Structures are given as structure tokens and as C-alpha cells.
Amino acid sequence: RELAQTLAEAGHRVIVACPYVANPKAPLFEGEAEQIGNVEIPVGAATLPFSLYRRKVGDVEYVLYRDPAGILHQKTYPTHKVGGKIYSDSPYGYVESIVLSQMGMYVARARRINVNAFHFNDWQVGLGPVYMEEIYRHDPAFAPFIGAAGTVDIGHNYAYQGVFGHHRKRVGSL
What we know:
Structural class: alpha/beta
């Protein structure tokens, strides 16, 4: 939230698309927000419906999404297991990642927002830049809103999952 607020204070219009978590750990999700529409996100050969809600915190507009059945995004960081696997590695976790990776583009189209840049934060939205480039950037329904947008992809805390050691090579100037 600090990056979004800092960018907003610098004069940028900042809109954050994120799940409307059922069991929140942050005040952002407490109480009801204003419902502003609906979108359907493709997952495989089907689509899943989501309701969109708006909440303003400081200078940042948050567009929260919730599936009407209340199946996805039950907790901010779920630790329970599904079928013997941690939630993130279950089909539910995969579907959440697919939805979250595309949601910003659907919010831009639904709200008719001309986007300068998408910030994809962490592994859960790792497919976002791929979806954008391979599917949405040149789609006539999306191009007027995201066709010229850049992407920023930030990953952090890779060692948390034990996939990488603590020694990493520095790449670029960041």
C-alpha cells in the first residue's frame, strides 16, 4: 500500500485491483464497499463471474473483486491444506492466480480507464504481463484502455517458499 500511496501523492492516478478477502488481515477489507459493476474472467474454457467494489483509502482507489459464490480468496494468506497440498498449490490457488493476473485488464475495460502502467506484485500475478502481451494488448475490446500500457513485475521474498537460496545475482540497476 505504501507504493500506491506514494505514487498518488506524486500526482499519479493510482487504482489497485485486489481480491475482496472474506477473512481479512487489513482494514481495507472490513465492512462493505460501494458495488460498481461486474466482470467475467476467463479460466480455461469457461468464465467466472466477479462483482466489483470500490473503496478509496487516502489518495488511492481500490477496486475489490469478489466471486458471488464466495469460494475464492477466503483469507489473505491461507495456510490450510486442500487435498493434502497447501492452498496456494491447490486448484483453488491456481484459479486465484489466473484470475488475479487478468483482473486489472478487466477493471480497466469495465471502468474505461486509460492505463499508463500495470504493477504486477509477486508470484500470484506472474502471468499478468504474459496475458497482457499475448491476449489483451491487441484485442480491440481492451486496446483502447491498455494498448500503450507498460508493465512492472516485482517479486520478493523468494526464499519464503524455499525455492531459492539466499544468494542471488544482482540484475540491472535495481
